[in-house]
Amino acid sequence: MNGVLIDQWIVYALLFASIYFEVFLLTSFIERRMGGLKIRKRISGALPTVAIVVPSFNEGKTIGGTISSLLALQYPKNKLEIIVVDDGSTDDTLCVAKRFESDSRVRVFYKENGGKHTAMNCALERTSAELIGCLDADSEVAPEALRAIVQVFENKQVAAATPGIHVKEPRTLLQMMQNVEYRLSIFNRFAFAAKGSTFITPGPFSLFRTGIVRELGAWRHAHSTEDMEMALRIQAAGFLIANVPEAIVHTTTPSTLPTLFRQRVRWTYGWLRNAIDYRYMFGNRAYGNLGLIILPSAILSIFAGLYFFARVVFFLVLSAVNTIDRVYDTGVYPQASFDPFYLTTSAVWLLIFMSVALVFALLCAGTMIGTGGRLPPRATPLFLVLYSFLAPLWYGAAVVRAAFKTGVRWR
Amino acid sequence: MEDPVVNVRTANWWSYVIAFLITALMFATAVYASNYFNNRRISEIRATQDDISSDILSIETQFDLLAEHSCSDIGESTILPSELTSLGSQLSYMESQGGRTEEITRLKRLYSLLLIKDYLLMQRVAEKCHLKPVFILYFYSNKGDCADCENQGYVLTGLSREYPQLRVYSFDYNLGVGALQTLISIHDIENALPALVINDKVYYGFHGIEDIKNILPQLATLEKSATSTDSKKK
């Protein structure tokens, strides 16, 4: 079998796998829309006590807004505590946080820098609340978010719940594209929860049952992605993770390519290393949808992204070199043809168009889930065209780092 | 906005089967659509060939009636060179896409026959009407044994673009068409490709634009294309 044929088979296999996964998620959404899996929107007993932890490191500029949004939560004052843990900041984070201590709900602690998991555990040791949540110091919650999210804990099997995360005031082109990407994440979180397969409990406003977190052994460093590891540990222990899109949180996203690149390398690196740590779940029927399709697809998407990217770059470079060679050898410049006869209509291209159309459908579903609207943000075409070229950059860096276990930094 | 969602992770095999069936259906649609568009292209090529074929027949008939007509009624243009070039490009494109080899080869054979007929007709018209057509016969191979054929093809395309009245007849040396083999024998062309027949003389190997202009000074008598003239002025 020659190389071209092998490449064709790989392309078809990857396209089939990615379209299959997209269809699988879309059908789970449709299944839900047809009436299944709903949670009663009513709290039968008293509201649970909640501790929201704000782990912070050098976030003096944004932490004020974060704490203010927590204080504005529509939740009984005697049932809410806000624990700010300054993880050894060198800026005015502590000073800004201390200003809020006049409110009885706010407690502020300072500790030596040790990473986000140590800040979370510091708060875990100091609270007796039934639920513990996290809100990154660059995020702000909507006033009704907490009331919306606590309702899912009526089900005693639910160990954690994730919110609907939106981009806070997207300004740059990159943030606008992330705004689109976050709509896709809203859809994914929803579909994964509908399949009982959430494997990330993100930093902005995920809530946990405190007793279960203690039982499972608190937060770990987990390759700088403690939010993924905790979700995988909850899944391994057989508990449920719910998703509450109505619990809206707005988070600040990187505004430049280098900061976005650093953040995503950390996420992807952490995911890959945690996947290795929890490899026994992959393909394991005991973990249901999570082991059989969600985790394998999440890993495959990274390698598919890298393969398609490498393929596109290879053929673009080859074509450019050939054209330059030809012009040099013959003196004849290429001429663009707009004859529709030459429009490519190979099965591979048609499948790529179908896959992109499916992503668009998922974005519309994400928008419907997250905002109640119908059309995704205006930057969607840009996201669809450019993001598949951007993501492989951090995928590649993360794969290399994960292979050599280099570790990653937060900033 | 959607209500909260939670579910157990137990695999429901039906959802896997349904997703598989939908994906398989999408694949089948893509393959069917791709075949449909390719068929349309083949039909387009076939229609163009039919047009050219009927044009040739018409001119041949006209030529047979030449005794009763003046040369001015026929002129130097038999089949428009641009039509032939365009048809050749379309066939090359279809060939490069792979698949349907037999169908493409059959169309190529017919195309070669049309080229030969046009070539012969043009010579007859030229002889009767005392015209001096400028043409090149080009023999290539795409079996992977001719490293310079691709570049030679681009040079000839560039020349055709510069001189729309230049007639370039391109033949696949390995195409099993009797008339083509006869043409190869008449000009005694060896399998050392690319080969160009210019003014009844055979030239082997790659020849650039300037080489051909030197070999074929009659090119200077042809009208240049508007774009080429414009670019020269710049």
What does this structure look like?
The complex is a heterodimer of chains A (411) and B (234). With 411 residues, chain A is an alpha/beta fold. Chain A has a domain at 49-259: Alpha-Beta Complex (Spore Coat Polysaccharide Biosynthesis Protein SpsA, Chain A). Chain A has 12 helices and 8 strands. In chain A, β2 (80-86), α3 and β3 (106-110) form a beta-alpha-beta unit. In chain A, α1 (3-33) packs parallel to α11, α6 (173-194) packs across α12 and α9 packs across α12. The termini of chain A are far apart. Chain B has one domain: Glutaredoxin (3-Layer(aba) Sandwich). Chain B is 58% helix and 9% strand. The longest helix of chain B is centred in the first third of the chain and has 52 residues, at 13-64. Chain B is elongated and about 90 Å long. The interface between A and B is large, with 62 and 43 residues.
Task: Write out key terms for the chains shown.
heterodimer; A: 411 residues; Spore Coat Polysaccharide Biosynthesis Protein SpsA, Chain A; 8-stranded mixed beta sheet; 12 helices; globular; B: 234 residues; alpha+beta; 4-stranded mixed beta sheet; 4 strands; 58% helix; 9% strand
